[in-house]
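Listing S7. Sequence submitted for prediction.
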Amino acid sequence: MLTRSRCLSCFVEDISQAVEGLCTDASTRTRVLALCLRHLGENLDFHRPPSYHITELHRLLKRELGLVVPFADRRQQLNQVGKEIAEEVKREAQELSGYPRFRHFALWALAANSLDSRSAGTGYAFAAEKTRDYLRSYLAQGVARDELGLLFEKLREGRRILYLHDNVGEVALDAVLIEEIRRYSDQVVSVLRGGAITSDATWEDGLAVGLHRTAKRMIVAGPDTLGISFREMSPELAAELDEAELVMAKGQANFYVLSQYRDRVAGEVFCLFSSKCDPVAMLFGLRGKKLLAFFLSERIS
């Protein structure tokens, strides 16, 4: 999916919230935000996915404020809460088996995508202690496009799986889903960011929630890009994309990229994310924030 004109208001709102949350000095906030807006105005390209522009704006923000890991405390807090919720989810599944058990874990991992503290409507001031109720409210909505049953049948064939993670906190629920997937397919590779960008999960976040114990192995997608990037991906990710029989892609940013470059991925692609805006939801005949779990069969620009 390429950038639309309606994406611009989200770009501005997102970077404005980030500047407000990271900088207490009013003059510095004004200066950095002005630089971001100037950069966007001079470099806006409707032939790139939205994630490209968000990445560039947040890189500029990090450089100007001298930050390597923005919102470090909040990231750690969300990972801890995610781990606590993951343990509860595992306890609730003790009496389940087969597809109902898989679906239980998949739904929680899908709902956890709504924890995106950038653009999910929660903002950078999201109260981590309220995450349980917040996730349950998403689960109560149901899945607007639901192909989890078909995904389960594919997984039972023992396919080689590449799992593209999205947010901190959420990655803890991904870990228990991967643990369940490995009942059927032992070949699951987890893909994480090589550097912190907004709320995306990094290699360190994967270690923090125990992904190295549930996935077959972990690899770095590339540097600090929002979602994966075909321009900046690591050699490891490029190789795995060539070999994977099934790519499980969490998050809207990964959807942006894979829907635009679908023809570059040989295996099947399954997207699991909460839509953050109408331009994306409307691709599926929907509006607003909806849970989506579906096979991506063709390019969407």
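Caption to Listing S7: primary sequence and predicted structure tokens for the chain studied. Residues 7-65 form one domain. The mean pLDDT is 93.
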